[in-house]
Amino acid sequence: MSGTWSCLAAARRSERGPRGSFLIDGRRAGSIDAAGALALGAWPHWFHQTVEGVWVMSVPSAEREAVFAEVNAALRAQGLIRAWRDEPFALWNEDGALAAVIERASSRFWGAQTLGAHINGYVADADGRPRQLWIARRAWNKPTDPGRLDNLVGSGVPHGQTPRQAVCREAWEEAGLHPHELGGLTAGRVIELACDIPEGWQHEWLFVYDLALPPGRAPQNQDGEVAEHQLLPIANALQRAADGEMTTDAALATLDFALRHQLLPAGEAHRLNPAFEALLVAPERAEPFDPLPP
User: Please, are residues 145 and 7 in contact by the beta-carbon 8 Å criterion?
Assistant: First the structure.
């Protein structure tokens, strides 16, 4: 097969210029672009910029979430926060400590690190080698990437859940999979995206999982967020990912699957590996966010 695997470049795409670091309690918690810097000038009593261009939030921890709620609502009204979800996401500092809980959509404005989790659902042959991949098409009314191809299951990770918990919950909502069908869920690798997207700056750790489904077990969407599921031969699915038909997250999760299971021609895998490995999060850094279940 051949293809550009444009997801590799998209994972590091920067189109809006430099971003200034955003600090809470002296620790980096995100970043702010030029448009955001202009907007934050409306709240000098809560946010100020140093001569080095660093943005600092000066709000006691007990008042922080109320301030974020007020500011985020105003930024939403200005069109600077898009695809509002009414879903709480954690805002961590660079040490992995919780700094606040914020609206999911606002994480792109603040350049905050988020977590995502995807499942590569596949059907194996008699030797256990993947021969088909389940691919989802996102509903046409989704706020992000409507109609694009996706993995069997994909989820953002809300505050209070681990990536594994989030993807198991979403497995029912997106694919109609029951908990007892997830016993074979295995972890792949963790991929870091740091890139401009229409909603702002995506800084995300994407946790990848694999799940073998038995032949004849077709997924059934429950929440209306998936338009259809297709079971594709491996070569077909990989080609569509390589050609950019999938979302960036889904294509990266698919590429991780292909490289780990040695599904690509040796020459192509050798060509892609350096760029892909540059996106990987070290296991010891990722493990605290997704500890193995007891």
Answer: no
- The alpha carbon of 52 is separated from its chain's Cα centroid by a whole number of angstroms, namely 30
**Residues 70, 62: contact at Cβ < 8 Å?**
no
Write the CB contacts of 2 (distance below 8 Å, at least 6 apart in sequence): 242, 268
Of the CA atoms within 13 Å of residue 13, those in its CB half-sphere come to 13
> Residue 118 to residues 58, 64, 257: CA-CA distances in angstroms?
36, 31, 11
Of the candidates 265, 253, 9, the residue with the CA atom closest to the CA atom of residue 136: 253
**Hey, what domains does the chain have and what are their CATH numbers?**
20-111 (3.30.750.160), 114-287 (3.90.79.10)
Angle between helices 234-242 and 248-260 (to 10 degrees): 130
Greatest alpha-carbon pair distance for the chain in Å reads: 65
Q: What is the pLDDT of residue 2?
A: 60
- List of E strands, 39-150: 47-49, 55-57, 88-92, 98-103, 113-124, 130-138, 149-150
260-274: pLDDT as tens digits: 999 999 999 999 999
Residue 1 has pLDDT above 80, yes or no: no
- Please report the pLDDT score of residue 272 as a whole number: 97
Q: Is 11 exposed, middle or buried (0-12, 13-18, 19+ CB in 10 A)?
A: buried
Query: What does the chain come to in residues?
Result: 294
Q: Token pair of 117, please? A: 């989790």
Question: In this model, does residue 87 exceed pLDDT 90?
Answer: yes
Residues 119, 151 contacting (CB under 8 angstroms)? yes
Average pLDDT rounded to a whole number, residues 209-218 = 97
